[in-house]
Amino acid sequence: xxxxxxxxxxxxxxxxxxxxxxxxxxxxxxxxxxxxxxxxxxxxxxxxxxxxxxxxxxxxxxxxxxxxxxxxxxxxxxxxxxxxxxxxxxxxxxxxxxxxxxxxxxxxxxxxxxxxxxxxxxxxxxxxxxxxxxxxxxxxxxxxxxxxxxxxxxxxxxxxxxxxxxxxxxxxxxxxxxxxxxxxxxxxxxxxxxxxxxxxxxxxxxxxxxxxxxxxxxxxxxxxxxxxxxxxxxxxxxxxxxxxxxxxxxxxxxxxxxxxxxxxxxxxxxxxxxxxxxxxxxxxxxxxxxxxxxxxxxxxxxxxxxxxxxxxxxxxxxxxxxxxxxxxxxxxxxxxxxxxxxxxxxxxxxxxxxxxxxxxxxxx
Length: 364
Known about the structure:
- 74% of the residues lie in helices and 1% in strands.
- The chain has 364 residues and is mostly helical.
- It has a domain at 1-163: Farnesyl Diphosphate Synthase.
- α3 packs antiparallel against α16, α8 (201-227) packs across α9 and α15 packs antiparallel against α16 (346-361).
- It starts with 15 loop residues before the first helix and ends with a helix.
- The relative contact order is 0.10.
């Protein structure tokens, strides 16, 4: 089941009633899809069940962006208010599609510490006696199908919202913007991950923005403003705010991936170093003299905890950590500057300030 109510700390990102409405919209969608799938056989029902499981359990962060912008601008009590849950659900389903496909690209079989769709189908095939190679292929193939379904129906949920034709057209254009940018970012990520030369900080940030920030922050915020009937100046401000806070989110993620407390974050602080992940920290360090000592360890599949600790120390010594923290502060300040613009009403400013706090709190 989807989480029924938000954690108290999350109440600031949209009202609990609208949050509950997004949950209900997703439940309704998956109930109907599962029932429809029954006519096509139990295997199809099971695929939809797995897609549902992989869409649930999170904080519904992207729908919260839609809700925050809508409520902050004082969205009207007309058909747009009823459309908010479905538009929020559309962005959550888009998120599912993109992470399912991303896991296929990365050949990852686990997410959030549990088997993802690829992992579930791989493990079932293994249990049935299928060879390791064929089991992995079966798992990845099932995930491609599931991701395709989620991607298509994300658009269909916008239609389901019942919003008027003018706003529907703008919302679909925004969905197009989100997907188009994310695909470009994914391609850059593929190029950078296999490159011998470490990309620059600007290249890393541009890739992260396209791959994640556009669909997670910029576009959902703009969509909420569109639903609320906000003028173009406010819609543009929401995109600018989303870009800055989304970049800050990625920088925090990079810092946590190396210096985070694993017990607090639930994420390894060694895997990024072992996998050779291109981050802001690494991009900065690669441009310093200290990189010659780091390069032999970075990206080693055999990286020990002792070696990882040595790498962390060298990243500190190179100034990479301080650089990333300063860069984070710059983007946070820019996000706050956007909220201070005269076209952004006070009610919207109050609604979005907690977004900055939540992004920063991830690193504490």
